[in-house]
Design brief:
signal, three-stranded antiparallel beta sheet, about 325 residues, alpha/beta, about 15% strand, transmembrane transporter activity, ABC_Gly_betaine_transp_sub-bd, 2 domains, Glycine betaine/carnitine transport binding protein GbuC, binds trimethylamine oxide
């Protein structure tokens, strides 16, 4: 007993005085790629940072909700953009089951919700209130939606629950799911010339805020449980009768085996924290400047060495 205690005390003293760390596995760290630009660019940025850290990385394209189950099982190693509004529920469910860890928050504050370009207010001056929007529903009507207003929601895997919200709040809108993020930008772009009023799903941080000034529709304020307990929110019998969080988090998540298998990379992951302007810029490099995600990541890393090199050095 005594010898063991002495030995481990000596080992501890050695480790802390010489900063010797276990080496990271040479197995690839699996980074998931989804269907919006900041996440794709950020994943490439972090992949290249981890390569600079000496790690091997591999990218896989995955569904943005199912990824939390894949991380829990260790098939995917991490997630760089856990948006509270879109993925909070799937992330919380995976945390409860076990196998996934919260690897910390980005500096960024996020919002995802119904949004309109500013010119829309000329046709519906009561905005941003959702009740005013509903009173103007016919202004947003199209051949496709008849006398109801058209709301273009995000692709189905973002699970925005637009249809449930319309039902829960008794709104005069038809919800259409866009096939891709690009379809959202095309809708706004097509409306711009004639200043046609439109309401679409959008989020911040994003490139769009620099291109089209606009505002989020103000729905009943988000309250925890609004997606779980019908009693929460203004309609006592329905879920999703609240807006998304107006000051949501943006988290990183990791497989709970990552720290043991790649301790140095895990430390880098916990150090990483992007701001709203940095994330908007990542999206812009692809959506406005039309770069490929990999070259966008290279450009970002080259322009911001002071930001990311400190994440490497403070890792030891
Ligand atoms: C998850 N997203 C940023 C597209 O709303």
């Amino acid at each position: 007993m005594k010898t063991t205690a002495l030995l481990s005390a000596a080992a501890l003293a050695f480790a802390s005085s010489t900063a010797v760390f276990a080496e990271d596995s040479s197995d690839p760290i699996v980074i998931p790629i989804h269907n919006w630009s900041s996440q794709i660019v950020m994943s490439n940025v972090v992949g290249q940072i981890l390569e600079a850290n000496g790690n091997n990385v591999e990218y896989v394209t995955t569904d943005s909700q199912a990824v939390y189950e894949s991380i829990r099982l260790g098939d995917v190693t991490l997630e760089l953009e856990v948006w509270e509004g879109a993925f909070g529920a799937s992330f919380r469910a995976a945390l409860e089951k076990g196998g996934i860890v919260d690897a910390g928050d980005h500096d960024a504050v996020t919002r995802e919700d119904w949004w309109y370009p500013m010119w829309t207010k000329e046709s519906c001056p009561g905005l941003p209130s959702w009740e005013a929007l509903n009173d103007c529903a016919e202004v947003f009507a199209t051949a496709e939606t008849g006398d109801k207003g058209r709301y273009l929601d995000g692709p189905v895997d973002w699970l925005k629950h637009g249809k449930e919200r319309v039902e829960a709040l008794g709104m005069n809108f038809t919800v259409i799911n866009a096939g891709s993020a690009a379809a959202l930008w095309a809708e706004i772009g097509a409306a711009e010339a004639d200043k046609k009023p439109v309401v679409v799903f959008n989020w911040t941080p994003n490139f769009a805020e620099a291109v089209w000034p606009g505002e989020f529709v103000e729905f009943p304020e988000w309250v925890d449980g609004c997606d779980k307990d019908p009693a929460v929110g203004p309609n006592p019998d329905a879920l999703y009768d609240c807006g998304n969080p107006a000051t949501g988090y943006l988290k990183k998540a990791a497989w709970d085996g990552m720290e043991g298998k790649w301790p140095s990379a895990y430390k880098v992951l916990t150090n990483i924290s992007f701001t709203n302007p940095q994330i908007a810029e990542m999206a812009k490099l692809v959506d406005v400047d039309e770069m490929e995600p990999e070259e966008a990541a290279e450009a970002w890393l080259e322009a911001n060495p002071d930001v990311w090199k400190s994440w490497l050095s403070s890792g030891s």
